[in-house]
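ARCHIVE CARD
Drawer: 12
Card no.: 0347
Subject: one protein chain, sequence and derived structure
Cross-reference: see card 0346
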Amino acid sequence: MTLSIVDAITGELILFAAVFIALGGVDDFLVDLLFVYYCCAGHRLSPKCSENWGGGAASRFAIFVPAWDESSVIRPMLRAMLARWTDGSYRIYVGTYPNDPATIAAVASLALDDARVRLVVGPRPGPTTKADCLNALWAAMERDAAAEGEGFAAIVLHDAEDIVHPQELSVYARWIKTHGAVQLPVAPLCQPGSRLVSGHYVDEFAQSHGATLLVRQMLGASLPLAGVGCAIRCEVLRRIADARGVPFDANSLTEDYELGLSLRAMGARTAFVRVPEAPGGAAVAVRAYFPATVQAAVRQKARWMAGIALAGWDRTGWSRFWDLGDHWMRMRDRRAALSMPVLAIAYVALLGWSLSLLSHWMTGVPSPAQDAWLQALLAFNLLLLVWRWAMRTVLVTRLHGWREGRWAGPRMVVANYIALLAARRALWTYVGLLAGGPLRWDKTAHQFPGSLFDATPAAA
């Protein structure tokens, strides 16, 4: 009797998980097919390599670097930025907090030696939200522009752990003339000793910035900004500031994502630009170390999930009724809120199925036969899983080399585990926000490579 109950419950769980996993798998498969079409049809939305460079000095950029508790990385990051960007007209605005003297001291010592670095101490103690820090930088930039009688063409967003590309400003200068914002690819670096946890970011960004964003751009859907490696025209930000008082929404956990959606809603075009640094070379991209421990990765992904899939759903809603491509992409952004419970149920079903098989073997009672259509559905899901593994491996290998590509399969399991833990934390974060809890910058500790040789990409 007990065994039959276990079989019944397990069967229902398998059915539920199989149906929704198939829907998600078909969704991913369709995006992959569009990416294959993009490649085969020759949709090259970026100019030829020889057309990109030059003109960097024609646009004046304000580089915004928000920094809360970043004393260990901010100085080497800024030194690397100044060394790599020897040409071009720019000023680096670093946002700090009055209760973070270590970061203030690290920035101040460099600002005294180089006029391109501007230390900005915000009016409120930290941590506030990242958007609040960016608004303090915006106010400082506007004051400087008014006092000097010379404005900035665009702002460039970077985090305190980013490794900038030497040709980055040239790409912005080429594209910002005709677009409201420009986003470059983000290429995570795998931290030594964290091949699985840190490395799974390599796989996920290879998928998102190597394929998915190109499909979104092809469909004309909104392009979410990554918060790093992106330039936004000051004229566009002023229009947003005129409407709500400040350009960045301090009440958002993921202001960069929402800003990308807002730009499209106001008619400002965003370009995702993936161009090689040289013929056959790696892409001009932003590189950085991502979290190396499960706990740090869960904290970071929980903030993304709460800001995009939960709170962001409430805040940004949907696009225009007939804008089907954008509806599809927004639904994909919010799929985590639905897919994580399904994934948890799938793992429980797998465990229940294993226990059921073991119990039937030990008791000698034949296992109940599965319906033919359920067997076909499970086989279909297996084919989709193989496709997903193959596609992920190809993308990672193409962008980071075969040594990283061979880890793509095992890291899919790690990514699922981290996502499940992050979903639980994101839910509690969202519930806290609904209850009126404060927004806080739940950032992770950052690292910067001891040598820029460590930041050299493995492959094109």
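Annotation on reverse: Strands lie at 60-66, 89-96, 117-121, 154-157, 181-183, 186-189, 230-233, 270-272, 286-289. The longest strand covers residues 89-96.
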